[in-house]
Design a protein that fits this description.
The complex is a heterodimer of chains A (about 270) and B (about 250). Chain A has 10 helices and 10 strands. Chain A has about 270 residues and is α/β, with parallel strands linked by helices. In chain A, the strands form 2 sheets. Chain A has a 6-stranded mixed β-sheet, sandwiched between helices. A 4-stranded antiparallel β-sheet of chain A has the order 2-1-4-5, with helices on one face. Chain A is globular. By secondary structure, chain B is mostly helical. The relative contact order of chain B is 0.13. Classes of the chains: A alpha/beta (about 270), B mainly alpha (about 250). At the A-B interface, strand 6 and helix 4 of A face helix 7, helix 8 and helix 10 of B.
Chain lengths: ~270, ~250
Protein backbone atom coordinates (compact mmCIF):
# COMPACT_ATOMS: atom_id res chain seq x y z
CA UNK A 1 0.00 0.00 0.00
CA UNK A 2 2.62 2.49 1.13
CA UNK A 3 4.92 1.81 -1.80
CA UNK A 4 2.02 2.14 -4.25
CA UNK A 5 1.16 5.53 -2.83
CA UNK A 6 4.78 6.58 -3.04
CA UNK A 7 4.96 5.51 -6.67
CA UNK A 8 1.84 7.48 -7.48
CA UNK A 9 3.38 10.52 -5.83
CA UNK A 10 6.57 10.06 -7.82
CA UNK A 11 4.89 10.01 -11.19
CA UNK A 12 2.27 12.66 -10.52
CA UNK A 13 4.85 15.42 -11.02
CA UNK A 14 5.00 14.83 -14.76
CA UNK A 15 2.40 13.19 -17.01
CA UNK A 16 1.84 9.77 -15.52
CA UNK A 17 2.41 7.04 -18.10
CA UNK A 18 -0.65 4.94 -18.84
CA UNK A 19 1.42 1.84 -19.46
CA UNK A 20 4.78 1.54 -17.75
CA UNK A 21 7.33 -1.24 -18.18
CA UNK A 22 9.74 -1.18 -15.25
CA UNK A 23 12.78 -3.44 -15.59
CA UNK A 24 10.71 -6.13 -17.24
CA UNK A 25 12.39 -9.47 -17.95
CA UNK A 26 10.53 -12.44 -19.37
CA UNK A 27 11.99 -15.94 -19.44
CA UNK A 28 10.00 -18.57 -21.29
CA UNK A 29 11.20 -22.17 -21.40
CA UNK A 30 14.66 -21.25 -20.10
CA UNK A 31 15.12 -18.63 -22.84
CA UNK A 32 15.26 -14.92 -22.07
CA UNK A 33 12.83 -13.31 -24.49
CA UNK A 34 12.80 -9.79 -23.05
CA UNK A 35 15.52 -8.37 -20.82
CA UNK A 36 15.28 -5.37 -18.52
CA UNK A 37 12.76 -3.47 -20.64
CA UNK A 38 11.90 -0.01 -19.37
CA UNK A 39 9.26 1.93 -21.24
CA UNK A 40 6.51 4.44 -20.52
CA UNK A 41 3.59 5.11 -22.82
CA UNK A 42 1.77 8.39 -22.24
CA UNK A 43 -2.02 8.57 -22.39
CA UNK A 44 -3.10 9.23 -25.97
CA UNK A 45 0.31 8.41 -27.39
CA UNK A 46 0.67 6.33 -30.58
CA UNK A 47 3.74 4.17 -29.99
CA UNK A 48 5.08 1.89 -32.70
CA UNK A 49 7.43 -1.00 -32.00
CA UNK A 50 9.58 -2.38 -34.80
CA UNK A 51 12.38 -4.90 -34.97
CA UNK A 52 13.68 -7.94 -36.78
CA UNK A 53 11.55 -11.06 -36.49
CA UNK A 54 12.05 -12.87 -33.21
CA UNK A 55 13.12 -9.73 -31.36
CA UNK A 56 10.22 -9.99 -28.90
CA UNK A 57 7.95 -7.21 -30.16
CA UNK A 58 4.83 -9.36 -30.03
CA UNK A 59 5.90 -10.63 -26.61
CA UNK A 60 6.24 -7.06 -25.36
CA UNK A 61 2.69 -6.41 -26.57
CA UNK A 62 1.39 -9.52 -24.79
CA UNK A 63 3.06 -8.32 -21.59
CA UNK A 64 1.27 -4.99 -21.98
CA UNK A 65 -1.98 -6.90 -22.53
CA UNK A 66 -1.56 -8.93 -19.34
CA UNK A 67 -1.55 -12.17 -21.34
CA UNK A 68 1.99 -12.82 -20.05
CA UNK A 69 3.32 -12.03 -16.60
CA UNK A 70 6.93 -10.79 -16.37
CA UNK A 71 9.48 -13.10 -14.76
CA UNK A 72 10.87 -10.06 -12.98
CA UNK A 73 10.06 -6.37 -13.07
CA UNK A 74 6.63 -4.81 -13.35
CA UNK A 75 4.10 -3.79 -15.98
CA UNK A 76 1.77 -1.10 -14.67
CA UNK A 77 -1.43 0.25 -16.13
CA UNK A 78 -2.60 3.59 -14.73
CA UNK A 79 -0.22 3.00 -11.83
CA UNK A 80 -1.64 -0.43 -10.98
CA UNK A 81 0.21 -3.69 -11.66
CA UNK A 82 -1.19 -5.76 -14.55
CA UNK A 83 -2.00 -9.20 -13.23
CA UNK A 84 -4.45 -10.19 -15.95
CA UNK A 85 -6.07 -8.68 -19.05
CA UNK A 86 -8.32 -5.67 -18.41
CA UNK A 87 -11.43 -4.49 -20.16
CA UNK A 88 -9.91 -1.05 -20.83
CA UNK A 89 -7.25 -2.72 -22.96
CA UNK A 90 -8.29 -4.12 -26.32
CA UNK A 91 -6.08 -6.32 -28.47
CA UNK A 92 -6.22 -6.49 -32.25
CA UNK A 93 -4.56 -9.74 -33.29
CA UNK A 94 -2.77 -10.21 -36.58
CA UNK A 95 -4.58 -13.43 -37.45
CA UNK A 96 -8.11 -12.03 -37.65
CA UNK A 97 -9.29 -15.34 -39.14
CA UNK A 98 -8.55 -17.10 -35.86
CA UNK A 99 -9.62 -14.29 -33.55
CA UNK A 100 -13.19 -14.04 -34.88
CA UNK A 101 -15.90 -16.53 -33.95
CA UNK A 102 -16.73 -18.36 -37.19
CA UNK A 103 -20.18 -19.39 -35.94
CA UNK A 104 -21.27 -15.81 -35.25
CA UNK A 105 -22.16 -13.15 -37.80
CA UNK A 106 -20.38 -9.81 -37.93
CA UNK A 107 -23.02 -8.39 -35.59
CA UNK A 108 -22.65 -11.41 -33.28
CA UNK A 109 -18.89 -10.98 -33.11
CA UNK A 110 -19.21 -7.34 -32.09
CA UNK A 111 -21.96 -8.32 -29.69
CA UNK A 112 -19.59 -10.66 -27.84
CA UNK A 113 -17.62 -7.69 -26.50
CA UNK A 114 -20.84 -5.93 -25.45
CA UNK A 115 -22.13 -9.10 -23.76
CA UNK A 116 -18.83 -9.42 -21.90
CA UNK A 117 -19.28 -5.83 -20.75
CA UNK A 118 -22.75 -6.64 -19.46
CA UNK A 119 -24.69 -4.37 -21.84
CA UNK A 120 -28.44 -5.16 -21.76
CA UNK A 121 -29.54 -6.98 -24.93
CA UNK A 122 -32.05 -4.26 -25.84
CA UNK A 123 -29.28 -1.68 -26.20
CA UNK A 124 -26.93 -3.87 -28.20
CA UNK A 125 -28.34 -3.69 -31.78
CA UNK A 126 -28.07 0.10 -32.02
CA UNK A 127 -24.53 0.06 -30.63
CA UNK A 128 -23.51 -2.79 -32.97
CA UNK A 129 -24.83 -0.89 -35.98
CA UNK A 130 -22.97 2.23 -34.91
CA UNK A 131 -19.70 0.32 -34.43
CA UNK A 132 -19.98 -1.47 -37.78
CA UNK A 133 -20.60 1.89 -39.45
CA UNK A 134 -17.56 3.36 -37.68
CA UNK A 135 -15.25 0.74 -39.20
CA UNK A 136 -16.84 0.97 -42.64
CA UNK A 137 -18.91 -2.21 -42.51
CA UNK A 138 -22.48 -0.93 -42.63
CA UNK A 139 -24.85 -3.46 -44.19
CA UNK A 140 -22.59 -6.41 -43.44
CA UNK A 141 -24.07 -7.20 -40.02
CA UNK A 142 -25.57 -10.51 -41.16
CA UNK A 143 -22.44 -11.85 -42.86
CA UNK A 144 -20.26 -14.56 -41.39
CA UNK A 145 -16.49 -13.93 -41.21
CA UNK A 146 -15.96 -16.66 -43.81
CA UNK A 147 -18.01 -14.57 -46.26
CA UNK A 148 -15.82 -11.49 -45.78
CA UNK A 149 -12.47 -10.45 -47.27
CA UNK A 150 -9.35 -10.21 -45.11
CA UNK A 151 -9.62 -6.44 -44.87
CA UNK A 152 -13.26 -6.66 -43.82
CA UNK A 153 -12.48 -9.30 -41.20
CA UNK A 154 -9.77 -7.10 -39.72
CA UNK A 155 -12.20 -4.15 -39.66
CA UNK A 156 -14.64 -6.39 -37.85
CA UNK A 157 -12.04 -7.29 -35.25
CA UNK A 158 -11.29 -3.60 -34.77
CA UNK A 159 -15.03 -2.95 -34.31
CA UNK A 160 -15.15 -5.63 -31.61
CA UNK A 161 -12.19 -3.99 -29.88
CA UNK A 162 -13.82 -0.56 -30.07
CA UNK A 163 -16.92 -2.08 -28.46
CA UNK A 164 -14.80 -2.47 -25.33
CA UNK A 165 -14.39 1.32 -25.33
CA UNK A 166 -10.72 0.80 -24.64
CA UNK A 167 -8.36 3.32 -23.09
CA UNK A 168 -5.56 1.44 -24.78
CA UNK A 169 -5.49 -0.35 -28.10
CA UNK A 170 -2.79 -2.96 -28.60
CA UNK A 171 -2.28 -3.88 -32.23
CA UNK A 172 -0.08 -6.81 -33.23
CA UNK A 173 0.92 -6.45 -36.89
CA UNK A 174 -2.75 -5.92 -37.67
CA UNK A 175 -2.24 -5.24 -41.37
CA UNK A 176 0.62 -7.67 -41.97
CA UNK A 177 -1.50 -10.11 -43.95
CA UNK A 178 -3.30 -7.52 -46.09
CA UNK A 179 -2.48 -6.18 -49.55
CA UNK A 180 -0.87 -2.74 -49.91
CA UNK A 181 -3.99 -0.82 -50.94
CA UNK A 182 -6.18 -2.25 -48.17
CA UNK A 183 -3.38 -1.64 -45.72
CA UNK A 184 -3.06 2.07 -46.55
CA UNK A 185 -6.79 2.56 -46.28
CA UNK A 186 -6.89 0.88 -42.88
CA UNK A 187 -3.88 2.86 -41.64
CA UNK A 188 -5.76 6.10 -42.25
CA UNK A 189 -8.92 4.71 -40.69
CA UNK A 190 -7.08 3.62 -37.57
CA UNK A 191 -5.50 7.07 -37.30
CA UNK A 192 -8.87 8.83 -37.49
CA UNK A 193 -10.51 6.34 -35.10
CA UNK A 194 -7.73 6.83 -32.59
CA UNK A 195 -7.85 10.60 -32.99
CA UNK A 196 -11.59 10.51 -32.33
CA UNK A 197 -11.41 8.24 -29.28
CA UNK A 198 -8.19 9.59 -27.77
CA UNK A 199 -7.03 6.04 -27.05
CA UNK A 200 -3.43 5.14 -26.34
CA UNK A 201 -2.00 2.78 -28.95
CA UNK A 202 0.88 0.36 -28.99
CA UNK A 203 1.31 -0.79 -32.56
CA UNK A 204 3.68 -3.61 -33.44
CA UNK A 205 4.79 -3.90 -37.05
CA UNK A 206 7.71 -5.05 -39.16
CA UNK A 207 6.93 -2.37 -41.74
CA UNK A 208 9.20 0.58 -40.91
CA UNK A 209 7.34 3.03 -43.17
CA UNK A 210 4.09 2.10 -41.49
CA UNK A 211 5.62 2.67 -38.05
CA UNK A 212 6.83 6.18 -38.92
CA UNK A 213 3.63 7.04 -40.76
CA UNK A 214 1.41 6.12 -37.81
CA UNK A 215 3.45 6.79 -34.70
CA UNK A 216 4.24 9.64 -32.35
CA UNK A 217 7.27 7.64 -31.35
CA UNK A 218 8.98 4.57 -32.81
CA UNK A 219 10.95 2.09 -30.76
CA UNK A 220 13.28 -0.41 -32.38
CA UNK A 221 14.04 -3.60 -30.46
CA UNK A 222 17.29 -5.53 -30.53
CA UNK A 223 16.93 -9.31 -30.59
CA UNK A 224 18.23 -12.12 -28.32
CA UNK A 225 17.14 -11.02 -25.78
CA UNK A 226 14.66 -8.30 -26.70
CA UNK A 227 15.67 -4.85 -25.50
CA UNK A 228 15.35 -1.29 -26.71
CA UNK A 229 17.94 -0.40 -29.36
CA UNK A 230 16.65 2.87 -30.73
CA UNK A 231 14.00 5.39 -29.80
CA UNK A 232 12.84 7.97 -32.32
CA UNK A 233 10.29 10.72 -31.67
CA UNK A 234 8.27 11.34 -34.84
CA UNK A 235 7.64 15.06 -35.28
CA UNK A 236 5.51 14.90 -38.37
CA UNK A 237 2.40 17.06 -38.65
CA UNK A 238 -1.02 15.49 -38.15
CA UNK A 239 -3.32 14.61 -39.77
CA UNK A 240 -0.97 12.47 -41.78
CA UNK A 241 -1.38 11.99 -45.50
CA UNK A 242 -0.34 8.97 -47.51
CA UNK A 243 1.40 11.13 -50.12
CA UNK A 244 2.68 14.31 -48.48
CA UNK A 245 3.68 12.72 -45.16
CA UNK A 246 5.66 10.01 -46.90
CA UNK A 247 7.47 12.69 -49.00
CA UNK A 248 8.27 14.85 -45.97
CA UNK A 249 12.07 15.29 -45.44
CA UNK A 250 11.66 14.36 -41.77
CA UNK A 251 9.88 11.14 -42.80
CA UNK A 252 12.75 10.26 -45.13
CA UNK A 253 15.34 11.07 -42.46
CA UNK A 254 13.61 8.86 -39.87
CA UNK A 255 13.16 6.13 -42.46
CA UNK A 256 16.89 6.20 -43.23
CA UNK A 257 17.80 6.10 -39.54
CA UNK A 258 15.43 3.21 -38.83
CA UNK A 259 16.55 1.20 -41.86
CA UNK A 260 20.19 1.60 -40.83
CA UNK A 261 19.30 0.41 -37.35
CA UNK A 262 17.45 -2.68 -38.57
CA UNK A 263 20.23 -3.49 -41.02
CA UNK A 264 22.76 -3.28 -38.19
CA UNK A 265 20.73 -5.62 -35.96
CA UNK A 266 20.53 -8.20 -38.72
CA UNK A 267 24.32 -8.42 -39.09
CA UNK B 1 -26.90 -40.26 -57.94
CA UNK B 2 -29.93 -42.44 -58.73
CA UNK B 3 -27.88 -44.31 -61.30
CA UNK B 4 -25.17 -44.96 -58.73
CA UNK B 5 -27.51 -46.16 -56.02
CA UNK B 6 -29.24 -48.39 -58.57
CA UNK B 7 -25.87 -49.94 -59.37
CA UNK B 8 -25.04 -50.30 -55.68
CA UNK B 9 -28.34 -52.07 -55.11
CA UNK B 10 -27.96 -54.45 -58.04
CA UNK B 11 -25.57 -56.91 -56.37
CA UNK B 12 -27.40 -57.35 -53.05
CA UNK B 13 -30.72 -57.75 -54.92
CA UNK B 14 -29.18 -60.38 -57.18
CA UNK B 15 -27.84 -62.27 -54.15
CA UNK B 16 -31.25 -62.13 -52.45
CA UNK B 17 -32.94 -63.36 -55.62
CA UNK B 18 -30.46 -66.22 -55.99
CA UNK B 19 -31.01 -67.15 -52.34
CA UNK B 20 -34.78 -67.10 -52.85
CA UNK B 21 -34.51 -69.36 -55.91
CA UNK B 22 -32.14 -71.73 -54.13
CA UNK B 23 -34.33 -71.89 -50.98
CA UNK B 24 -37.41 -72.74 -53.03
CA UNK B 25 -35.61 -75.22 -55.27
CA UNK B 26 -34.18 -77.16 -52.32
CA UNK B 27 -37.36 -76.84 -50.18
CA UNK B 28 -35.25 -75.24 -47.43
CA UNK B 29 -35.97 -76.56 -43.94
CA UNK B 30 -33.88 -74.66 -41.37
CA UNK B 31 -33.96 -73.21 -37.83
CA UNK B 32 -31.68 -70.36 -38.80
CA UNK B 33 -32.45 -69.46 -42.41
CA UNK B 34 -35.57 -68.48 -44.33
CA UNK B 35 -36.13 -67.34 -47.91
CA UNK B 36 -36.36 -63.55 -48.31
CA UNK B 37 -40.04 -63.68 -49.31
CA UNK B 38 -40.94 -65.34 -45.99
CA UNK B 39 -38.86 -62.80 -44.08
CA UNK B 40 -40.76 -59.97 -45.74
CA UNK B 41 -44.09 -61.67 -44.95
CA UNK B 42 -43.04 -62.13 -41.31
CA UNK B 43 -42.06 -58.46 -41.11
CA UNK B 44 -45.42 -57.40 -42.53
CA UNK B 45 -47.16 -59.72 -40.06
CA UNK B 46 -45.20 -58.27 -37.13
CA UNK B 47 -46.26 -54.77 -38.22
CA UNK B 48 -49.87 -55.88 -38.62
CA UNK B 49 -50.16 -57.05 -35.01
CA UNK B 50 -48.12 -54.05 -33.73
CA UNK B 51 -45.71 -56.39 -31.90
CA UNK B 52 -42.66 -55.03 -33.71
CA UNK B 53 -43.81 -51.43 -33.20
CA UNK B 54 -44.12 -51.94 -29.44
CA UNK B 55 -40.71 -53.61 -29.36
CA UNK B 56 -39.22 -50.74 -31.39
CA UNK B 57 -40.69 -48.23 -28.96
CA UNK B 58 -39.19 -50.08 -25.97
CA UNK B 59 -35.75 -50.39 -27.52
CA UNK B 60 -35.58 -46.81 -28.79
CA UNK B 61 -36.86 -45.42 -25.50
CA UNK B 62 -34.10 -47.22 -23.58
CA UNK B 63 -31.45 -46.43 -26.17
CA UNK B 64 -32.27 -42.72 -26.46
CA UNK B 65 -32.74 -42.14 -22.74
CA UNK B 66 -29.44 -43.87 -22.07
CA UNK B 67 -27.84 -41.86 -24.88
CA UNK B 68 -29.15 -38.58 -23.46
CA UNK B 69 -27.93 -39.34 -19.93
CA UNK B 70 -24.58 -40.64 -21.18
CA UNK B 71 -24.11 -37.61 -23.41
CA UNK B 72 -24.80 -35.15 -20.58
CA UNK B 73 -22.42 -36.91 -18.19
CA UNK B 74 -19.74 -37.41 -20.85
CA UNK B 75 -20.01 -33.81 -21.99
CA UNK B 76 -19.78 -32.37 -18.48
CA UNK B 77 -16.66 -34.39 -17.66
CA UNK B 78 -15.17 -34.04 -21.14
CA UNK B 79 -15.42 -30.24 -21.07
CA UNK B 80 -14.16 -30.05 -17.48
CA UNK B 81 -11.17 -32.29 -18.29
CA UNK B 82 -10.51 -30.37 -21.49
CA UNK B 83 -10.41 -27.05 -19.66
CA UNK B 84 -8.52 -28.08 -16.54
CA UNK B 85 -5.27 -29.89 -17.09
CA UNK B 86 -4.96 -30.49 -13.35
CA UNK B 87 -8.36 -32.16 -13.14
CA UNK B 88 -7.58 -34.22 -16.21
CA UNK B 89 -4.32 -35.53 -14.75
CA UNK B 90 -6.04 -36.29 -11.43
CA UNK B 91 -8.73 -38.32 -13.16
CA UNK B 92 -6.76 -39.87 -16.01
CA UNK B 93 -5.94 -43.15 -14.27
CA UNK B 94 -9.51 -43.53 -13.03
CA UNK B 95 -10.94 -42.90 -16.49
CA UNK B 96 -8.50 -45.25 -18.17
CA UNK B 97 -9.25 -47.95 -15.58
CA UNK B 98 -13.04 -47.78 -15.92
CA UNK B 99 -13.29 -47.10 -19.64
CA UNK B 100 -12.12 -50.50 -20.92
CA UNK B 101 -14.82 -52.35 -18.92
CA UNK B 102 -17.27 -53.69 -21.50
CA UNK B 103 -20.64 -52.18 -20.67
CA UNK B 104 -22.28 -55.61 -20.97
CA UNK B 105 -20.04 -56.85 -18.15
CA UNK B 106 -22.02 -54.56 -15.84
CA UNK B 107 -25.14 -56.56 -16.60
CA UNK B 108 -25.04 -58.84 -13.52
CA UNK B 109 -24.48 -55.91 -11.15
CA UNK B 110 -27.13 -53.78 -12.83
CA UNK B 111 -29.56 -56.68 -12.71
CA UNK B 112 -29.08 -57.17 -8.98
CA UNK B 113 -29.27 -53.46 -8.27
CA UNK B 114 -32.11 -52.50 -10.58
CA UNK B 115 -33.88 -55.68 -11.71
CA UNK B 116 -35.34 -56.29 -15.16
CA UNK B 117 -36.80 -53.44 -17.16
CA UNK B 118 -35.99 -50.06 -18.61
CA UNK B 119 -33.90 -48.68 -15.77
CA UNK B 120 -31.26 -51.39 -15.90
CA UNK B 121 -30.99 -51.14 -19.68
CA UNK B 122 -30.79 -47.33 -19.62
CA UNK B 123 -27.96 -47.39 -17.07
CA UNK B 124 -25.91 -49.80 -19.17
CA UNK B 125 -26.52 -47.82 -22.37
CA UNK B 126 -25.57 -44.59 -20.59
CA UNK B 127 -22.36 -46.17 -19.29
CA UNK B 128 -21.43 -47.22 -22.83
CA UNK B 129 -22.19 -43.75 -24.26
CA UNK B 130 -20.27 -41.74 -21.65
CA UNK B 131 -16.81 -42.73 -22.87
CA UNK B 132 -16.78 -41.79 -26.55
CA UNK B 133 -18.46 -38.48 -25.66
CA UNK B 134 -16.03 -37.81 -22.82
CA UNK B 135 -12.88 -38.67 -24.77
CA UNK B 136 -13.91 -36.85 -27.95
CA UNK B 137 -15.32 -33.73 -26.27
CA UNK B 138 -12.16 -33.50 -24.15
CA UNK B 139 -10.08 -33.63 -27.34
CA UNK B 140 -12.43 -31.13 -29.01
CA UNK B 141 -12.06 -28.63 -26.18
CA UNK B 142 -8.29 -29.04 -26.17
CA UNK B 143 -8.05 -28.41 -29.89
CA UNK B 144 -9.95 -25.12 -29.77
CA UNK B 145 -7.96 -22.36 -31.45
CA UNK B 146 -5.87 -20.84 -28.60
CA UNK B 147 -6.44 -17.39 -30.08
CA UNK B 148 -10.16 -17.72 -29.27
CA UNK B 149 -9.32 -18.41 -25.63
CA UNK B 150 -7.11 -15.31 -25.62
CA UNK B 151 -9.95 -13.27 -27.06
CA UNK B 152 -12.14 -14.57 -24.23
CA UNK B 153 -9.46 -13.59 -21.70
CA UNK B 154 -8.94 -10.16 -23.25
CA UNK B 155 -12.69 -9.51 -23.18
CA UNK B 156 -12.80 -10.71 -19.57
CA UNK B 157 -15.64 -13.12 -20.24
CA UNK B 158 -16.74 -14.73 -16.97
CA UNK B 159 -16.07 -18.52 -16.81
CA UNK B 160 -19.71 -19.55 -17.42
CA UNK B 161 -19.95 -17.32 -20.51
CA UNK B 162 -16.55 -18.56 -21.67
CA UNK B 163 -17.87 -22.13 -21.64
CA UNK B 164 -21.26 -21.28 -23.12
CA UNK B 165 -20.23 -18.72 -25.73
CA UNK B 166 -16.78 -19.85 -26.79
CA UNK B 167 -15.91 -23.39 -25.75
CA UNK B 168 -19.14 -25.24 -26.51
CA UNK B 169 -19.84 -23.61 -29.90
CA UNK B 170 -16.21 -24.02 -30.95
CA UNK B 171 -16.18 -27.69 -29.96
CA UNK B 172 -19.75 -28.48 -31.04
CA UNK B 173 -19.01 -29.81 -34.56
CA UNK B 174 -16.65 -32.42 -33.09
CA UNK B 175 -18.93 -33.11 -30.16
CA UNK B 176 -21.73 -33.87 -32.60
CA UNK B 177 -19.53 -36.44 -34.35
CA UNK B 178 -19.07 -38.08 -30.95
CA UNK B 179 -22.83 -37.98 -30.42
CA UNK B 180 -23.40 -39.71 -33.76
CA UNK B 181 -20.92 -42.41 -32.78
CA UNK B 182 -22.61 -42.83 -29.42
CA UNK B 183 -26.08 -43.07 -30.98
CA UNK B 184 -24.92 -46.14 -32.91
CA UNK B 185 -23.39 -47.59 -29.75
CA UNK B 186 -26.60 -46.93 -27.79
CA UNK B 187 -28.67 -48.98 -30.25
CA UNK B 188 -26.15 -51.84 -30.26
CA UNK B 189 -25.91 -51.96 -26.48
CA UNK B 190 -29.69 -51.71 -25.97
CA UNK B 191 -30.36 -54.64 -28.32
CA UNK B 192 -27.51 -56.63 -26.77
CA UNK B 193 -28.90 -56.18 -23.25
CA UNK B 194 -32.30 -57.30 -24.51
CA UNK B 195 -30.87 -60.37 -26.22
CA UNK B 196 -28.80 -61.25 -23.18
CA UNK B 197 -31.36 -60.87 -20.46
CA UNK B 198 -33.91 -58.05 -20.55
CA UNK B 199 -37.35 -59.29 -21.65
CA UNK B 200 -38.36 -56.28 -23.73
CA UNK B 201 -37.69 -54.61 -27.04
CA UNK B 202 -36.32 -55.81 -30.36
CA UNK B 203 -33.59 -57.96 -28.81
CA UNK B 204 -36.13 -59.91 -26.79
CA UNK B 205 -38.23 -60.17 -29.98
CA UNK B 206 -35.34 -61.89 -31.76
CA UNK B 207 -34.85 -64.33 -28.87
CA UNK B 208 -38.55 -65.12 -28.74
CA UNK B 209 -38.71 -65.80 -32.48
CA UNK B 210 -35.64 -68.03 -32.22
CA UNK B 211 -37.12 -70.04 -29.35
CA UNK B 212 -40.40 -70.35 -31.26
CA UNK B 213 -38.37 -71.85 -34.16
CA UNK B 214 -39.42 -68.98 -36.44
CA UNK B 215 -36.26 -68.12 -38.43
CA UNK B 216 -38.35 -65.93 -40.75
CA UNK B 217 -39.53 -63.73 -37.88
CA UNK B 218 -36.08 -63.74 -36.26
CA UNK B 219 -34.50 -62.54 -39.49
CA UNK B 220 -37.34 -60.04 -39.97
CA UNK B 221 -36.38 -58.46 -36.62
CA UNK B 222 -32.76 -58.45 -37.71
CA UNK B 223 -33.60 -56.68 -40.98
CA UNK B 224 -35.73 -54.15 -39.08
CA UNK B 225 -32.94 -53.38 -36.61
CA UNK B 226 -30.64 -52.83 -39.57
CA UNK B 227 -33.13 -50.43 -41.13
CA UNK B 228 -33.44 -48.48 -37.85
CA UNK B 229 -29.66 -48.20 -37.46
CA UNK B 230 -29.28 -47.10 -41.07
CA UNK B 231 -32.05 -44.51 -40.78
CA UNK B 232 -30.64 -43.17 -37.51
CA UNK B 233 -27.22 -42.68 -39.07
CA UNK B 234 -28.66 -40.93 -42.13
CA UNK B 235 -30.78 -38.69 -39.93
CA UNK B 236 -27.80 -37.65 -37.80
CA UNK B 237 -25.51 -37.19 -40.80
CA UNK B 238 -28.04 -34.88 -42.46
CA UNK B 239 -28.50 -33.01 -39.17
CA UNK B 240 -24.73 -32.64 -38.87
CA UNK B 241 -24.42 -31.18 -42.35
CA UNK B 242 -27.37 -28.86 -41.83
CA UNK B 243 -26.20 -27.61 -38.43
CA UNK B 244 -22.47 -27.47 -38.85
CA UNK B 245 -21.82 -27.19 -42.56
CA UNK B 246 -20.32 -23.76 -42.11
CA UNK B 247 -18.84 -24.16 -38.64
CA UNK B 248 -17.29 -27.52 -39.51
CA UNK B 249 -15.70 -26.00 -42.59
CA UNK B 250 -14.21 -22.98 -40.87
CA UNK B 251 -13.37 -24.91 -37.69
CA UNK B 252 -11.40 -27.65 -39.45
CA UNK B 253 -9.42 -25.56 -41.89
CA UNK B 254 -6.01 -24.64 -40.45
Amino acid sequence: MASAAKRLEAVSGTIAPQIAFDGVTLVLGGKTIIENLGLGVRPGEFLCIVGASGCGKTTALRLAAGLYQPTSGRVNFDGQPMREPRREIAIVFQDYGKALLPWRTAAGNVSLALEAGGMPSAERPARIEELLRTVGLPGHAGKYPSEMSGGMQQRLQIARCLAQEPKTLLMDEPFGALDAMTRQGLQDEVLSLVAASGATVIFVTHDLDEAIYLGDRVIGLLPHPGRIGIELPVNLPRPRDQLSTREHPEFLRLRRQLFDFIKATEQ
Amino acid sequence: MTGNSAKALALPLAVLLAFEVWARATHLQSDSLAPPSQIVMALIGAFADFSILAATRDTLFSAFTGLAIGTLIGLAFGIAFGISDTLNRLMEVTVEAIRPIPSIALLPIALIALGFGYRMEIVIVAFACVWPILILSRAAVRSIEPRLMEVARALRLPPAQRIWKIIIPAALPRIFVAFRLSAGIALIVAVTVEIAINPLGLGAGIMLAQQALRPDLMLAYLVWIGIIGYALNILLTVAQQRLFGRAALSGDSP
